[in-house]
Amino acid sequence: LGPLGKTMFVIMICLYIYAALWVYAVLVGQTFASSLPLSPDTSPVLSYWFYLFIFGALVTFLTTKDITGPVMTAVNLSFAVARLVMVCVMVLTLLHGLLSVGRGGEARIDPDPAPLYAPAGMFQMLPTAIFGFIFHHAIPTLVEPVEMKAHVQGDFALTILLVLLGYLALCTLSVSLFGGETLPAVNLNWEEYSPPSEVMGLLVRSFVVFFPAVSLICTYPLQSITLANQISAVVPGAPPLVSRLLAACPPIVASALISDLSFVTSLAGICGFFIVLVFPCLLQYTSKAYMERHVPGSSPTHYTSMLTRSPVVVLFVGAIGAAMAIASLTMILKDTVVESLWNVLHPHEVQWP
Q1: pLDDT single digits (tens) 32-89
Q2: Within a domain: residue 272?
Q3: Are 61 and 242 in contact (CB under 8 A)?
Q4: Is 237 left (phi over 0), alpha (psi -120 to 50) or beta?
Q5: Fewest beta carbons less than 10 Å away: which of 39, 56, 159, 348?
Q6: How many CB atoms lie under 10 A from the CB of residue 243?
Q7: DSSP state of 352
Q8: Residue 113 covered by a domain
Q9: Which of helix, strand or coil describes residue 205?
């Protein structure tokens, strides 16, 4: 891709991580503001800003410290196991709720279910799906400690399959039970989970509602440090402390201004279109052309697949990725402008979040 292409790719990675950090901050602020408001009379916005300030101060402090090492590895491993447990708990409680409804129970369910297929939401769904599966920028870090690298391809395939099944189970069951009341942060729907056992209900509610936000206290600094390293690559000579502050602080400020979780997640996904589809296709096309010019007959290689063998297919996939990114961004910005104008014209009807 050359120096310009490399710089553009690094910039897109930085934008994606900024958007991801923005998502994390909004999720934490909304979780605590919704579940632990400062007082019954306090505005939800003030509660959101309060918790966002506490979270921002904590993660910014951690970002400026060296948090690598065995302790942090153990913490991240524990959080990974806890996330798996949380998914299982959510699926089981959703199944229990649906079965209770089927037996005439009193499970909370929306009398007006959400449609299972809504074409108008495609431009919001696709970026969110990309955001949920993007990890390309972390592959070198994930692969480096693996001893048997020949098994990496199978390991990634199995991991993606398991994550996909988990997402499908959660999404399908959540929409089936909560219907039109399904929240962008679906774990917040568990605030009203009330099984026969009060103790069990308290444990499940607390775990499902608060664990994602608590786990982000570790995830946010690690992502910020990764972003700071990318900033240092784009701006050589920048002091490490300055790079880390530039990585950690802007998403907190942006979260205080815009707290629409669906909008922010879609922005991160749009960056993901370029990272997942556009740049890899450009790299494949240009590297293949380079090898054919300098070492004729060297292509295809051991790594060439059915999808990457034809330059036409490679360019087509890249063009599809760029088109989806542009279309999604256009639709999201249009909806945001329309909503903002409506809020200005009808300020007394504005609801948060």
Answers
A1: 888 888 888 778 888 889 999 999 999 999 888 877 667 777 777 888 888 889 989 9
A2: no
A3: no
A4: left
A5: 348
A6: 22
A7: -
A8: yes
A9: helix
| DSSP labels, 16-62 | HHHHHHHHHHHHHHHHHHHHS-S-TTS-HHHHHHHHHHHHHHHHHHH
State the DSSP code for 275: I
Share of the chain above pLDDT 90, in %: 8
Residues 6+ apart with CB under 8 A from 245: 60, 63, 64
Query: What are the angstrom distances between the C-alpha of 163 and each of 145, 154, 254, 332?
Result: 22, 14, 29, 26
Whether residue 37 is contained in a domain is answered as yes
Residue identified by tokens 């890249």 is 318
Residue 22: domain span:
2-257
Scan for tokens 């948060």, then name that residue: 352
One-character DSSP codes across 103-172: TT------SSPPPS--GGGHHHHHHHHHHHH--GGGHHHHHTT-S-GGGHHHHHHHHHHHHHHHHHHHHH
Q: How many alpha carbons fall within 13 Å on the CB side of residue 43?
A: 7
Polymer length of the chain: 353
Question: For 138-187, how does the pLDDT look when each residue is reduced to its tens digit (9 = 90+)?
Answer: 677 677 777 777 778 888 888 888 888 888 888 888 888 888 788 878 88
246-275 pLDDT, tens digit each: 999 999 999 988 888 888 888 888 888 888
In a domain, 223, yes or no: yes
